[in-house]
Structures are given as structure tokens and as C-alpha cells.
Amino acid sequence: MQPIGPADPARRETPRSDPAPSRVAYRIQRLWLTPVFRAILRTGIPAFSIMAVGIWYSSDEARVESVKSTLSEMRSSIEHRPEFMVNLMRIEDVSAEVAEDIREITAVDFPVSSFDLNLEDMRARIEELDAVARAELVVRAGGVLDVEVQERVPSVIWRGREALELLDDSGHRVSALKARSTHTDLPLIAGDGADLVVPEAMDLFRAAAPVQDRVRGLLRVGERRWDLILDRNQRIMLPEHGAVAALESVLALDDINELLGRDILAVDLRDARRPTLRLSGDAIEFLRQINMPRDGDSSL
């Protein structure tokens, strides 16, 4: 439909603007839609700028040393605050000798910051002590370093080639022993390799409970088997395998026939097929006399 009135001359003279972007604006918009470009603008350029500033700043050694000194002072001021200081070490439920060894091997000069204590290294050094089975170190409130130690319990005395030693029930060394008389309550083992088979020795001692008051110890022979040594110079020579069962059979015979109460030097069980009794010299002479023919007797 055509307008009734005359057309507006001003409207005819105003050109209409083109809504399409310019070539440059179009290229920028397309580039901005690219993920790599956006990542470079948002992350790459700031990171590069920070790196460049850091390289420039660190190029001056005086500034670097100043920063290091400031950081070191800040760290030292924090680490040496009273709440982080350790003033003493507490060791409980261990013997005086073990406690002294722990203090000597850790060699901590108190007071010291808890940040300067390498608890894992200290624990490893404490557990290297023969008498210590397990250790745990904890810094308690109030500046106390608690050392909780599980001490090895001596179970047997081993007479080696050079000295006496205390061993626990697994055969681990506990400490040296100056005299047997200081631990008369512990059983004695002897011989090369005896310390390597302590659990077997403990089984034999338990099996020998019926004659416990007569037991003097166990002797390891050839690093293969045991001899049970009794008083009156008696010994039970046990086999390499099945030693506990063999000992129990001998003790059963002793309970019935008082075998070990007789004039016997040794019970040899090394060969299970041929158990042997070794008599003393007096017993052999007595048997010889009772087997000699009497005067007037004639053999048939």
C-alpha cells in the first residue's frame, strides 16, 4: 500500500547501515572461537609473563639471596616457637641398660625443634639394638618425646665358642652374658649353630619337663641334631628328625621302668631302628660278674 501523504525527504537521503561485521572483526571473532587461541590468551600469556618476571628477578643474585634469607628466617621463627620445641625424652617400661643405650644411640641435644627430629631414622636406629624388638616414637603435647619400646625377653642362654649370650625364643640375640650364675632360671644350649634352631630347642625343653630338675642343657652336635645332657653325666642322644617324639618315648620308659635312674651313661636314639643303651664301667663289670659261670657249673 502506498502512503497517502508525500514521502519524507530526510528518510530517503539516510543510507541503511550494513549489519554484517567487517573483515577484521570477522577474523577476530573466528579466531576467538578457536580453543587453542583462548587457552593461549587465558593461560599461556599470563604464565609466560610470570615466568619472564621470575627470570628477570632471579637474574640478580643479591635479590635471590635476600629472598632466601627472608624465607629461612620466617621458617626458623615458626619452627622454634615454644609449642614446637621438644624439651625431654621419656623412655618407660625398659631396663636401665636399654634406656641408656637408646639415649646414647639417638644423641639428641635438647631442647630441639620437632621439625629437626627425624623420628623414622631414630626409630630405625633404636630397633638396631639387639635388646629391642620394636620401637615407636611420638612427640606429645608439652614438648615430650615418648619412646615406646618392646624389649626382647631372654629365653635361653647360648654358650658359643667365645662367650655366653642371651637369646629370645626366636633365637635373636638379646645381650652378652658375663656369668651363667646370673641367669640360673634360663635353660642352656651349646654348640655351633645352636642359636639358629632355638625354637626346636625350646620344644625339647618343654618335652623334658618331667626331668626338668635333672636337665643341664642341650648340646648341638654337628649342626644337625641334639644331645640332652642330664646330671650324673647322662645324655640322651636324639635323632636328627623327630627329636621331640624320641625324647618323649624315652621319658615314657623312664616313667614306667625308671630307665634314667639306672647306671646308664647314654641313651642312643640316633637310629630309630636300633635304640642303644650305653652302660657305665661299673654296670658292665657287674653284668660280667653275674654272667660268669660258677664253680661246679658245667655247660651243656
Would you give an account of this structure?
With 300 residues, the protein is of the alpha/beta class. Among the domains are: 82-151, Ubiquitin-like (UB roll), CATH 3.10.20.310; 166-290, Cell division protein FtsQ/DivIB (Rossmann fold, 3-Layer(aba) Sandwich), CATH 3.40.50. It contains 9 helices and 14 strands. The chain has helices spanning 9-13, 23-32, 35-58, 61-79, 96-106, 119-127, 198-207, 243-257, 281-291; strands at 85-86, 88-92, 112-113, 132-140, 144-151, 156-159, 164-167, 173-177, 188-190, 215-221, 225-230, 235-237, 264-268, 276-279. Strands 8-7-6-9-10-11-12-13-14 form a 9-stranded mixed beta sheet. A 3-stranded mixed beta sheet has the order 2-5-4, covered by helices on one side. It has a two-stranded antiparallel sheet with strand order 1-3. The chain is elongated and about 155 Å long. The chain starts with 8 loop residues before the first helix and ends in a 9-residue tail after the last helix. Residues 296-300 have low confidence and may be disordered.
Q: Can you summarize this structure?
A:
This protein is α/β, with parallel strands linked by helices. The protein has helices spanning 9-13, 23-32, 35-58, 61-79, 96-106, 119-127, 198-207, 243-257, 281-291, and strands at 85-86, 88-92, 112-113, 132-140, 144-151, 156-159, 164-167, 173-177, 188-190, 215-221, 225-230, 235-237, 264-268, 276-279.
